[in-house]
Amino acid sequence: MKPLLGRRSYGCDVVARCALLVLLTVTGSAAASGDAATSSAVTSDDQPQKVYMPDGQLQSHLISVYVTGTVSAESAPRLLLKAGHSVTDVAPDEGQRLEPAFVVPRQEWWEDRLGTKVSETGTLLLFDLSAKQLIPCYKAMSRFRPIVEWNCNGPKCADRAVGPREVNVGQTVPAWAWTISILLAMLGFLAVLVGRAAGARPTLKWLCVENGRYSLARTQILIWTVAIGAMVLFYGLVRLSVPTIPPTLLALMAMSLVTGGVTYVSPSSPSSTPARSAQEARLFDLVLDFSPAAPQGVVSIARAQMLFWTLLVVVLFVVKSALDGALWDVPVELVALMGISQAGYVLPKFDTLIRPANPAGAPPPPPPAS
Length: 370
Known about the structure:
It is a single chain. The protein has helices at 2-45, 172-197, 216-239, 247-265, 301-324, 332-346, 351-354; strands spanning 51-52, 57-58, 62-68, 78-82, 102-113, 116-128, 141-153, 156-162, 167-170, 288-291, 294-299. The chain has 370 residues and is α+β, with helices and mostly antiparallel strands. It folds into 2 domains: 51-170, Immunoglobulin-like, CATH 2.60.40; 173-354, no CATH class. Strands 2, 4, 7, 8 and 9 form a 5-stranded mixed β-sheet that branches. A hairpin with a 2-residue loop joins β10 and β11 (294-299). α3 runs antiparallel to α4, α3 packs parallel to α5 (301-324) and α5 runs antiparallel to α6. Mean pLDDT is 79; it is low at 1-10 and 26-44.
């Protein structure tokens, strides 16, 4: 019996060892498979992440910052804005980690790279910086290098992405203050220049025609020049570059200049009406028609309509451009309405070319005195 029991014990030991070997082999394979999956995920997550912050954003609006890849709200992303200080001091809130108001993954945006539009996808971070002191109160804008950090444990962060270049962030109130100050200085200089040329005190004589009354065409040119110039200067101060000018603005400006040129060469001359000095020009001259038969002027519906549409479109243009963050592309329908009102103002000036000088049934002119 003893030899038989010894053989059975030896056989069980061999079977146990074989089972253990198979178990270790299977476990090792599973561990190797898991390690391979983990390595693949790390390799996938180790793709370089980029930060894109559009240039020329206003601090009073929500600031947009894009990060390629997926950044969740649970990873607590933060934004740092670093500026250079060769002359100015560091602002109180500069360098603080700013918390986003919204974290929106799976977003698409377009970047301009050397004149080519490139599409990217990733996470959009929206920041409310309206209450932050990032820019000195006297500056229209400051340049910052954006840095986004997430998965932070105290001062140390596991993930960080830095913007490739500095971007401009503007302040609305100082930018408008500088814009209005520069425009007033330029208009004042022109008024002084015209007044010196006329040998009188500074006036708005450049808006008057030969009879000393305000010209509607010249006033319209001035209004559009100041409105478009103000918005171009405003965004030029904020972005340090000339903003894109929509084609409809070029059409409106050209329309005003053509109207002024046509009225200048029209047969109906204002010199036939009594002249006044530029200081005696009245604002309601803009809606009056003057002629030898009506030297005091009569109300012109065409002139009132042209002035109404001009002021309406200019106000809409300034408000929309200030709120949208770009020069407003005036709808084609409004441009057409402006063109119709311009035609209603210009065509009556060619009345002497359209109607005969002595219409049928009118008494003949008296013979010349001998």
